[in-house]
Structure formats: structure tokens, C-alpha cells
Amino acid sequence: MRKVFILAAAAATMLMASCSKEAENKVFKAEAEAAAESGKVAYSGGSLLWQAGDEVSIYDGSSNSAVYAVASGDGTSRCEFAYSSGSALDAGSYTAVSPAAIRTGVSTISLPATQSSADGSLTGLPMYAVSSSENLKFYNLCGVVRFRLSASSDASVRSIAVTTNANTNGAATISGSGTSVTLGTLGGTATTTLSLGTAQGIASAKDFYMYLPAGSYSSFVITMTAEGGASCTKTANSAIVIERGKITTITLSGLSFGGGLPEGALSGVFSVASGRTVHFSQGNLQYQASTGTWRFATNQYDCIGNSNSSISSTNSGWIDLFGWGTSGWNSGANCYQPWSTSTNYADYYPGGAYTNSLTGSYANADWGVNNAISNGGNAAGLWRTLTHDEWSYLFNSRTGCSTVGGTSNGRYALAQVNGVGGVIVFPDSYTHPSGVAAPQNVNNDSPSQSWGNNSYSASDWGSMQTAGAVFLPAAGNRNGSSVYDVGSNGLYWSSSYYTSYGAWYVSFLSGDLFTESAHYRSYGRSVRLVRG
């Protein structure tokens, strides 16, 4: 991913050597927009730093398009771009977009709802160039917000979400050129999230960067989520003005993440990787097509069951079994809507490639990233789906968990809750409530251990939930509009692809638990979201 650092600046020049299928050796000279001390976006040492894997999209005057990728000189401002895909380009006029992944047409792009940055520095800044020759000068399409954050106590930030009175991501048309370049009305959502690869400490002031379309935002709400899932929300008391190619600095000091749990989150803390913890949502994800509403089930043991067979774009009922990546965001897959019923696994390829997971450029294909959950904070970008590795770590690799039912490092147990079969997952720290039967056969999924061996009433489960336990019900499976195995099989999607036909998921029966399951991504399965 192209990485841009905000420092002092001047124009940067680089050479892009292209090679088409006809080996034309056409050379493009590309220059980034000059920055000034007045606050315009600037690049490290006056340079735009390119990284291996960066790609730009170029159209010629005949609407031929090609993608060029860094071939050598990555990490510098002067590097070679080699032909990657597309058509040979004619001589004449050109338009170019960086990064290539956001371009959807000659003069259209789609800004992501989630911007990913490992450490909070600016990445993927959208730029546009128009030229009548091979000399391309790129101009910024957005402005930049610099969040300068510090906490009243030691805290680590995992993500920063901005919700405004206008859409800040999605499809848009580019008009004009040079310093007069503008974006049309965005067709996405009003929430854009900066997702950090590693939680960043803010005990002392630290800067984080996000690009947003230019405009005067009368409503500007900032939600910062800390390691562990606690959040802190701040609302601007006056309009926030963002100008194309300039930096707007917002300083927030004395932040406190000591408040209660985020809406829709359960109290238990679960490790899903070394140093990474999450809170689970209060229940499985549900969707109503007739109103476009997403919600979490009221109870952890709730599941829709056979009513998923009524799946359609106008269904006024609720569904909770979804094809892989069907968040409603147009990921480039043939099937991306929650009501998709195609049984062809190739229709569920984000970006048209089976190797794309629901992360990075395709994070919006994740149900929790793209959508506002009505009883889970009601804003996009607050939740996400666990990866395959995280699910595996949760069940198989966690260490140092509490002793549960006489089993040290208790992680899970097959069980029935309120008559519904499934799997109980115990948090890292757990004290089983007194007066409730202790779980048996903890960490045991052998065929002889049915979930009927641990049976809890709704009342008993309420006490266990208060202690932090999570329950995954066996909500069944869907293929097209056919629903089966409700009550006897649980299948929960991850955000990770597996092969050309499948994606990874967790599955369980009465007496079996499989964290290494993978099958057709066209099948409708359960989704359980997390925060953190």
C-alpha cells in the first residue's frame, strides 16, 4: 500500500516505465502536487514514497485502461512502474488515479469506508492526474484530518470512526482537473473508520491521519475505540471545514476510556491473538431486507431457523444466515447483498478474485465494518468478523485462562442453553456463578461429549452471561432458499478466504467442534461480530 507521511514538503517527481503487451516502453513522468507550510498535504522530505505492490490506473483518450505496478525502487519517490494488466495505451491524452483499486471508471472512483493503517500514518491518499502528454501531475482528491490524541491514563487506540452529516465514502464522479478537481456527491455511508493494525498508545500525544472529501461538516462525531473494546466519543461544537489538499488538525486531550461497555457488547474479554482482545456482540447478526435494518439477536441463544427460506430483497421478516461477504457493500462480487441466494461459489468473489479476504481493500464486505447495527452503536465501522486465525486461537491456542469445571485454561464446552444446542466460549478471566451447575467436559469435543451433557436454563445462562460467557447457537445452514440442520449444526463465518470455492468458518455438532472448516462461500451461515 502506498504510504504517505505528513511532514514538510515540496513537489516530488518519479519516472514510471510502462510496458504493454506490445512492449511499447512508454514512459510517464509523474509529479505529486506541491505542498506548502500553510498546511497543504505534504510528503516526507518532499517525496511521495511508493511501496512494493502499489498500483496506479491510467486511461487514454480512447478509453483504453491499464494498471501499472511498482517494479523497482520501492520505498523511494522515483521508481519504475511496469505494465500489470489491461490494454495497451494510445498516445495522446491520459487520466490517472492512485491507488488503482479505488477506480471504477474513466471518471469515477469509490472511496473506502475503512482506511487501514498499521500505525496511524496516512495511507492510500486518493490522487488524480489529467494530461495531454506522458507528463502526469497528480492532485489530491481529498483533504486530510490529523487527530492529535492523548489520554488521561495509559490507553491504546484500535480504531477512529468519524460520522458526519454527509456521506464520506462510496462511489463518486471526478470533475475538473488540477487545483479545480472535485468529487461529486458520495454514494456510500456517513461513517468512515481508520482501522489500526496494532493498537497505538496515547498516554502521550500521538497523531493519526484520515483523508475525507472536502466540505463543511455541520455534524462531526469522533468515536475512538480502545484495546479491549471500550470507546470514547467526542462531538464537535462547531462546523468542521476540510479543504482539498490541506490538513485540518483536531486535538483531543485527556481522553478517558473508562466508561461502560459499547452498546451491544458483552462483558467478557477474549484473546484472539497474542496481545489482541475482543468483546463479542450480544447475539448473532440479523437483517430485515424490507427496511434495510441490521440488528443483534436479543438473546445469545436466539436463531431465526427455517424462516431464512423466505430470503428476498423485500422480505419483511428477519434472516440470520448469510452468504460469505454479503454485507450489502458492492465489493465487485456478483453476489454481495444479504439476500443473495446464488449457489455458485464464484459469485461471491470480492473484487472478482477468490484470494481476497474481507479485510484491507475489501474490509467493507465485512458485515460489521460496512453496516450500522441498530442496537450495536448504530454506526458503521464499529464491529468486525474474526479471521480464521483468530477463531483458531480463541478455541485452540489461548493460554492462561481460568479454571472452569475443574479444567485448567478452560476455553469452551459443548452445551444446551434454553433448549438450544451450541458451544459456550469462556472469557480469559471467568468465575462460574454459584448455584449453577459447573460445566463438564471443558475443552473436550470428542464424539462422546454431546452438548446435552451441559444443560442450562435461560435463568442459569443469564448468570453465566453476566460472568462473561458467550454462547454460539447451532443456527443451521442455508443453500439458496433451502434451510437445514437448524438446532443440530452451527456454522460461523470468518473473514478469511480458503480456496477458489470456499472460505474458512467454525462448525460444530453435538460432540464435534471444527475450527479448520472450509466449504462453499455461497452457503448461508451465521455471523457473530466482535469489537476490538
Helices, strands, pairings?
Layout: E1 3-4, E2 13-17, E3 27-32, E4 55-60, E5 65-72, E6 80-86, E7 94-98, E8 108-111, E9 114-117, E10 122-123, E11 127-131, E12 135-140, E13 143-151, E14 156-164, E15 170-175, E16 182-183, E17 191-201, E18 206-212, E19 215-217, E20 220-226, E21 231-235, E22 240-242, E23 247-255, E24 270-273, E25 276-280, E26 285-288, E27 293-296, H1 367-370, E28 384-385, H2 388-397, E29 412-417, E30 420-425, E31 455-456, H3 458-466, E32 470-473, E33 477-479, E34 482-484, E35 490-497, E36 502-509, E37 512-520, E38 529-531
Parallel strand pairs: 3-12, 9-17, 13-23, 29-31
Antiparallel strand pairs: 1-10, 2-3, 4-5, 4-7, 5-6, 7-11, 8-15, 11-12, 13-18, 14-17, 14-20, 15-16, 19-22, 20-21, 24-25, 25-38, 26-27, 28-38, 29-30, 30-32, 33-34, 35-36, 36-37
Overall average pLDDT: 86
Indicate the radius of gyration in whole angstroms: 25 Å
Overall geometry? globular
What is the quaternary state of this protein? single chain
What would you say this structure looks like, in words?
This protein is mainly β and 532 residues long. The chain has two domains: 3-255, no CATH class; 263-532, no CATH class. It is built from three helices and 38 strands. The radius of gyration is 25 Å and the shape is globular. Residues 1-25 and 34-48 have low confidence and may be disordered.
